[in-house]
């Protein structure tokens, strides 16, 4: 059940209790996996703020522009064999006191600041059009213009080898640089591609596929000003963040976004007053639910069913909610490149009934 009020999901006051600084160090990151047995990087109370560093595993696409000494230390410390079974470099986990399976955590993303003024897009072998475009991998390096909050391509280069080693470092000073996307500008919208709680599964769980725990959702709307709700699966939640981006379109069809490290400020609030099956996103204008599956049809149906459930909590009948989904709900493709594909359904908050359950 989801508890609703006139402004959306009932908001707790969430007055900050403490501020924790969570730097990305070899002891505070885990590369390629969630794991319910991991020791916490930090233990917090409900309502605490966390200032955390999220690092892109694609920094090696141009280490001169995308890496600093602290990142080189992580790359040297964590062996390639320990970056498995996924690819994303995760910061955490964060243990929330009193969080139990079935509870929800409300994560208010307050700010996301790029660590550098550059990012990388890889047209990868897992991209949707890899076969159609000659089965080669191509890196495009983008520069972020803070004055305009736009990004433009600086150069591109091709790589014959597939990206198989998470954190692969290329020798960009020696690569064949080519001009790219002359005159093109893209809006910068920093967000986290991957974040979530530890699944209740023994051993490592890959960061690549998204799921009910969150994970690699790759929705560009999960940025500053957004609130995500995740269902706790193990004691303490064990929440981690990673896979930072500065821009991405729906679909992420080349396989990656503009991958770039971020400093993220967020607040975590423990919620025992409602539950929801899948990762739920709230923005100032929309409620957005996520569906996942082996096919887009399955993912779309899962998103639609969960939105139907959400709307019924406002007092609508199933038939009424179904009609509203068709005339006001927007069903979209989140990503098609993570093995498990994703869809999302969004509906305007001002479309919902005024007399909601409380």
From TrEMBL:
InterPro entries in the cross-refs: FmdA_AmdA
Signal peptide: none
PANTHER family: FORMAMIDASE C869.04-RELATED (PTHR31891:SF1)
UniProt-recorded name of the protein: Acetamidase/formamidase family protein
Organism: Acetobacter thailandicus
């Amino acid at each position: 059940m989801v508890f609703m009020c006139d402004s959306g999901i009932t908001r707790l006051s969430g007055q900050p209790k403490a501020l924790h600084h969570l730097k990305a160090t070899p002891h505070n990151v885990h590369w390629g996996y969630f794991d319910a047995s991991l020791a916490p990087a930090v233990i917090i109370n409900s309502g605490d703020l966390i200032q955390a560093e999220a690092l892109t595993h694609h920094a090696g696409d141009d280490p001169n522009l995308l890496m600093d000494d602290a990142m080189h230390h992580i790359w040297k410390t964590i062996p390639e064999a320990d970056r498995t079974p996924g690819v994303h470099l995760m910061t955490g986990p964060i243990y929330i006191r009193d969080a139990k399976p079935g509870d929800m955590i409300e994560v208010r993303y307050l700010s996301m600041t790029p660590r550098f003024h550059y990012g990388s897009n890889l047209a990868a072998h897992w991209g949707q059009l890899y076969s159609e475009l000659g089965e080669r991998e191509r890196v495009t390096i983008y520069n972020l213009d803070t004055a305009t909050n736009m990004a433009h391509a600086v150069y591109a280069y091709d790589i014959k080898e597939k990206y198989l080693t998470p954190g692969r470092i290329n020798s960009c000073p020696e690569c064949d640089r080519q001009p790219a996307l002359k005159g093109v500008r893209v809006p910068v919208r920093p967000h986290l591609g991957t974040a979530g709680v530890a699944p209740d599964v023994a051993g490592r769980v890959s960061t690549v596929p998204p799921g009910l725990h969150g994970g690699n959702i790759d929705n560009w709307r999960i940025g500053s000003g957004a609130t995500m709700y995740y269902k706790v699966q193990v004691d303490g939640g064990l929440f981690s963040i990673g896979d930072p981006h500065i821009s991405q379109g729906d679909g992420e069809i080349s396989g990656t976004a503009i991958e770039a490290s971020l400093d993220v400020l967020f607040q975590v609030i423990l919620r025992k007053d409602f539950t929801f099956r899948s990762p739920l996103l709230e923005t100032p204008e929309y409620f957005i639910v996520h569906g996942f599956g082996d096919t887009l049809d399955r993912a779309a149906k899962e998103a639609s069913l969960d939105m139907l459930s959400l709307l019924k909590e406002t007092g609508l009948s199933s038939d009424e909610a179904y009609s509203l989904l068709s005339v006001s709900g927007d069903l979209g493709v989140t990503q098609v490149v993570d093995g498990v594909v994703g869809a999302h359904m969004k509906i305007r908050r001002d479309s919902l009934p005024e007399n909601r359950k409380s």
